[in-house]
Amino acid sequence: MSDIHNLADAVRRAASTSPDAPALVVPADAGTAERVITWSELDARVDAVAAGLAGLGLPQDGEAGPRVAIGLPNVPEFAFAFFGALRAGLVAVPVNPGYTPRELRQQLGDSRAGAIVATPEVAQRVASVRAELPALRHVYLTSDETVDDTHRFAELSGADASAGATASGATGGEDLAVLVYTSGTAGVPKGAMLSHRALIANHRQLAAVEPPIVRPGDVVLLALPLFHAFGLNSGLGAIAWHGACGVLVDSFDPRATLAVISRHQVSVLAAVPQMYAAWVAVPDLGERVASVRLAVSGAAPLDLAAARRFLEATSKPIFEGYGLTETSPVVATALASPVPKAGSIGRPIPEVEVRLVSVDGAEIARIGPAGVVFEDDYDYDFDDDAGGVPGTDPGEIVVRGPNLFSGYWPDGQGGPDSDGWWPTGDVAYADVDGDLFLVDRLGELIIVSGFNVYPHEVELVMAAHPGVAEAAVVPVPDPTTGQAVRAYVVRAAEAAVSEEQLREHCARNLARFKCPTVIEFVPELPHTATGKVVKGALGQR
Q1: What is the pTM (predicted TM-score) of this model?
Q2: Which domains does the chain have, with CATH numbers?
């Protein structure tokens, strides 16, 4: 795999190895036929887009290459634009096509993107704020019709491919490849600077896990949004790295997506917990996913009840993983553990080290792919109070590995320290075997009368009640205890659970200081594109 220095080179390799094999499949829909793009076809389109982008003469801005934004859903044109930008030596900036004009203005303005490839709907929103985006010179639409000062993407991708071929490999290694903006739940989104080195390292690391998540010949469901690091590198990037096939799904509907899985014999499911929770409610689930070899979950904590129902219905376990945008994205997976455990994110993947650090900066433990790493002079004691499982005290996850980002755009602030370590802001504990269990986000810790309350623990207890579909916990000021616990609850379908019933349920399962003082029933909780609850929006209620 050492021949890959620019992630777009993986497309070239797949086209050379398996030119006629399918790279991307767009399932047939109402009024549209199935679309299949082979690796040779994809490589040729990437060449053409690279040539077209290189011919725009976008100005260099500092050490980073010119930025090209991609405001597209899960369609083949996303892959053309993404790999084309990388092959041209430019920086790709995926943006959420559902963003409002304000959000587009913030992200395009911050990245100083010189061009964007977008749907007509996204382009229309961009047009309303374009006067505030002086760096944006070119807008390309994926439709046949253009409006105002826009151009057809087909024209860009129809350029002389020879120019794109010469651009291949012009950048790589430590050069910036992608700016992926974080969800911004704690403030304004920040652009994580992911180099070719970081993106490629994560594929090399995951390929060393047994069994590998993706193998040549696999058919991978690409239903996760490609503008998110999970869908982008663990999905689109993975099929290119392994020469596999990706089945693109733009809009998630549980029944329709299961039909796609069955019809196209999908072998790998990479999904978020909310997708699994929706699938387990569909009859004949086992028959519909009979072709699946491996099911993995990430981006948010996996609901244990949904995981159990999925296993019962399909005889296939869901392997939970953990990662962040800043780690390209995978840090740990249950596949790296000798025996996967319910609720565990497993162990770090090869070449990744994890430290658990207390709030006062003391090191609690070091964990590698082999489990807990003991130091000769380190006094290591397990605490039986860590979530009811013998293990360490909870501590912040601090990571080191070649898949880490280069800091936040534009100056690299907030990146790994001089020794390569980066604090994630997530809290976990390790059990006696060295398997990791997520507890919560460090910034979401609630302190009640001096006692630590981890919202995720309270949420798990509340979600275990049969009348609860989902719960989210946030802190609220309290004149007596400093902070108190407030819970927002979505009732399960046709359930009539009362506040008093939930209070009694919590009292049976939680210490008194952890129990919510306020319980509010809501019709739904706000989520990011990958299913995380946006607690900042709840706090504003």
Answers
A1: 0.83
A2: 9-248 (3.40.50.12780), 352-442 (2.30.38.10), 445-539 (3.30.300.30)
